[in-house]
Amino acid sequence: MIGKTVSHYKILEKLGEGGMGVVYKAEDTKLDRVVALKFLPSRLARDKIELVRFVQEAKAAAALNHPNVCTIYEIHDEGEQPFIAMEFIDGTSLREHLKGGRGLPVETVVDYTIQIAEALKNAHNKGIVHRDIKSENMMVTETGRIKVMDFGLAKLRDSVKLTKTGSTIGTVAYMSPEQARGEELDRRSDIWSLGVVLYEMLTSQLPFKGEYEQAVIYSILHDQPEIPLELPSDLRIVLSRCFEKRQDKRFQAADQIVENLKSIDVKKKAVGMKKGLRLSFILSGTLVTILVGIFVYLFILKSGMQKTTEGATSWSHSIAVLPFADMSQEKDQEFFCDGMAEEILNALTQVEELRVIARTSAFAFKGKNVDVRDIGKELDVETLLEGSVRKAGGRLRVTAQLIRTVDGTHLWSDQYDRNLTDVFAIQEEIALAIVDKLKIKLLGEEEERLSRRLTENLEAYHQYLRGRHILNRRKAEDMYTAIAYFEKAVQLDSLYVMGYVGLADAYALLPSYASVPPEKAYSQSKKYIHKALMINDQVGEAYASLGWIRMLADWDWTGAEQAFHRSMELNPGYATLNHWYGYLFMILGAFDKSLVKVKRALELDPLSPVINRVVGDVYYNAGQFEKAIPAIKKCLELEPCLPFAHLVLSGCYSNKSLYAEALEEINREKACRGNNYTGVDYAAGMIYARTGDLEKAKRVLRRLELKGEKSTGLARFYFLLGEKEKAYQMLEDLYHDHNTWIIYINSLPDFDMVRHEQRFQDLLKKIGFNHYR
Predict the structure, then answer these.
(1) Is the Cβ–Cβ distance between 320 and 280 less than 8 Å?
(2) Domain identity same for 356 and 490
(3) What is the helix (H) or strand (E) element at residue 356, kind and residue range?
């Protein structure tokens, strides 16, 4: 072809070849300019379907007139070699720019992404979906202008469908989930693909990988992308919105991406990136995960200040619902008042744009005369809802007011005079009024869940609240009391889902806190979860409990994650879900993912002793003892005797060789738990061994052996003393007994001394762990 003249174009050189054509550089002899000619391969030119698609590309692209879109001059569809004459772009593909294995500077990435999004905005407004957005289809000129190429796979609105049902068009690694499934596509598919290009520019890697095409497709459909924590928070937010598997949760239009990116101060963001980010992706060809910074960030949206955590749903607004005051003459309506606030709180958690502080934290201010501005700072919330209840006979007077915490301004207030039987309707009205005042647009399913009524029996609801409050204390003696309240709730209403969820959670926690045999407790927990889901399979809390029991009882990591994911879809604002989801990732050794979830739980419930301890647990397991210590100390400020807290703090001190402080914490744990708790004994024995006092360590060991103790703690003690055979036999016995605690050996740093040994790895495989830290 070189040197030939086709129509009035003289072929100069071949530029490239792809699935939809061969491209040549040519001279337009009529207009004396250089152009690019794209020829349909001769074998395809004879295929009418391919010829129609080729013409469709020209029509689609020719309809666009935008500086970031390659200009189409004309189409020549006569003869044996149809071609398109288009703008010749003197530059290189974006893929070529990334070949060095290094991400681009942040300011460049933001600039390029804005240009691509502007091009897509122009195309989408004309009803054109590109369907093959990838770095190969982006040309970069010498002046830094992006040109989007190849609309050969574009689909005009109302055009004839040219692909077979179920077929996939596009390059696999950049496909959206709906594209991978062969479904009908719209502009949101291009937004997903743009997210892949953005990720690629930042990291020089693709977010979804696999050794073959089907493996990549599986990853796109089922996996959450690893969005590195060291990326700037604003870009992580954009990526996470682009990578939402549900189209309705993604950015809905390209201009939303432009708006978010233009709000980024790229010069400030670039400072820490030049030295850290690129190197972390290149070093030995391995992604180096740097757990850095804060997990709560701010970025500006039209609706106000929006907050998010890594990989999590973003929030436009935040609220805490304080316990309502009892204004009744007898002062006997405390649980009714608490229940009123809790039900409104639970309803609001169904709204994805709203961060709702959990009951534990919101109710910490009960009975205290604290200024609303101080509460706002402590909980990091924009608004507070407070109210009061006055009950007289069968009548209620409920007042509620929404307050802006920054200055104490009243945004909304109302009063409801109703019959006692109307209490649920009042709760719904208040929740909807808040959403309306905050100008949050509800999806249909959110509005339906906002008004959910899981029981009409007030007393059943109150019994459930009592049980949940006691269960959150995590004390052995409290577990059985909580169970009694939950049992009373389901006796009063046999179809009350949350009563069964409470029972399931209590039985699932019994082996950890009350030394109950796991097989019996877990069997009961499964029974109640099954009952709850049989009654109503649209309750997020039930799926969270299902994921927890699958993890603890069945060691079914995939099944647990599926349940947690479903729970997240139904109730993303449920703090316990994020807490338990984080624990799953911790056990799997995925500490970066774990921290994302538990930090999100902490955002939702910042004054929860349990969640503060869990943050410490994750840092401890990750070997980041300096970060674990303040989290555990915060937990102990809130609840001085929360089980395991002093023990974890002791482990942190011991690993930092602060043995005196470690022993003090062991004594505190023993004082809280009593002499029957042997966990403090092997922890103390390990400290004696580390300090070289082997005689004292062995005395502790003999006492434990006489008691017939079986635990992972004792196995760790054996390893430390060099008695490997006993240690491995202990672990094998725990595995055969299906002991819950065995699953923690995959993440606990105490086993790092033998983690490399084949026998230990074989044990991990038997338990079901297919990868190691």
Answers:
(1) no
(2) no
(3) strand 354-356
Question: What DSSP letter does each residue of 259-304 carry, written as one string?
Answer: HHHHTS-HHHHHHTHHHHHHHHHHGGG-------S-S-EEEEETTE
Please tell me the distance from the alpha carbon of residue 336 to that of residue 657, in angstroms, as a whole number: 51
Residue 303 lies in a domain: no
Residue 113 sits in the same domain as residue 175: yes
Q: How many C-beta neighbours within 10 Å does residue 66 have?
A: 17
Whole-structure pTM over 0.70, yes or no? no
296 located within any domain: no
Residues 6+ apart with CB under 8 A from 72: 58, 61, 62, 84, 85, 86, 87
**Interval 576-594: pLDDT, tens:** 999 999 999 999 999 999 9
Q: List the beta bridge partners of residue 431.
A: none
Is the torsion defined by CA of 154, 158, 164, 165 positive or negative?
positive
Domain count across the chain: 5
Q: What is the domain range of residue 395? A: 317-454
Distance CA 90, CA 399 (A): 69
Q: Quote helix, strand, coil % in the chain, to nearest 5.
A: 55, 15, 30
**What is the C-alpha separation between 58 and 64, in angstroms, rounded?**
10
User: Which position has the token pair 């691509």?
Assistant: 116
Residue 284: exposed, middle, or buried by beta-carbon count in 10 A (0-12, 13-18, 19+)? Answer: exposed
What separation in angstroms does the CA of 388 have from each of 162, 320, 425, 573? 63, 15, 16, 25
Q: How far apart are CA 114 and CA 273, in angstroms?
A: 19
Residues 594 and 523 in one domain: yes
**Measured distance CA(88)–CA(72) in Å, rounded:** 10
Average pLDDT over residues 76-96: 83
Three-state DSSP string of 695-744? HHHHHHHHHHHHCCCCCHHHHHHHHHCCCHHHHHHHHHHHHHCCCHHHHH
CB 394 within 8 A of CB 420: yes
- DSSP codes, 453-496: -S-S-HHHHHHHHHHHHHHTT--HHHHHHHHHHHHHHHHH-TT-
Q: Is 415 helix (H, G, I), strand (E, B) or coil?
A: strand
Count other Cβ atoms within 10 Å, centred on residue 212. Answer: 9
Opening angle at CA 747, ends 578 and 606, nearest 5: 30
Domain identity same for 655 and 762: no
Q: Are 270 and 106 in contact (CB under 8 A)?
A: yes
| Mean pLDDT score, 251-272 | 73
Q: Kindly state the average pLDDT of the residues 354-383.
A: 87
Tokens of 313: 């749903």
Q: Are 472 and 450 in contact (CB under 8 A)?
A: no
In a domain, 302, yes or no: no
CA-nearest of 408, 399, 315, 401 to 357 is 315
Smallest CA-to-CA distance from 317 within 237, 436, 227, 232 is with 436
Q: pLDDT tens across 22-77, in order?
A: 889 999 988 889 999 888 776 666 677 767 766 776 676 777 888 998 888 888 87
Say which residues have a Cβ less than 8 Å from residue 219's Cβ, sequence separation at least 6: 208, 209, 210
Query: Nearest 10 degrees: CA dihedral of 95, 101, 102, 108?
Result: 0
Block residue for tokens 């020549």: 76
Burial of 410 (0-12, 13-18, 19+ CB in 10 A): exposed
Domain at 615, CATH number: 1.25.40.10
Terminal-residue alpha carbon distance, the chain: 56
Report DSSP letters for 504-562, one per residue: HHHHHHHHHHH---HHHHHHHHHHHHHHHHHH-TT-HHHHHHHHHHIIIII--HHHHHH
Query: Is the pLDDT reported for residue 704 higher than 90?
Result: no
Least confident segment among 10-24, 525-539, 570-584, 616-630: 10-24
Please name the helix (run of DSSP H) or strand (run of DSSP E) that holds residue 679, with its range, or none: helix 679-690
Mean pLDDT for the stretch of residues 684-708: 89
Tell me if residue 409 falls in helix, strand or coil: coil
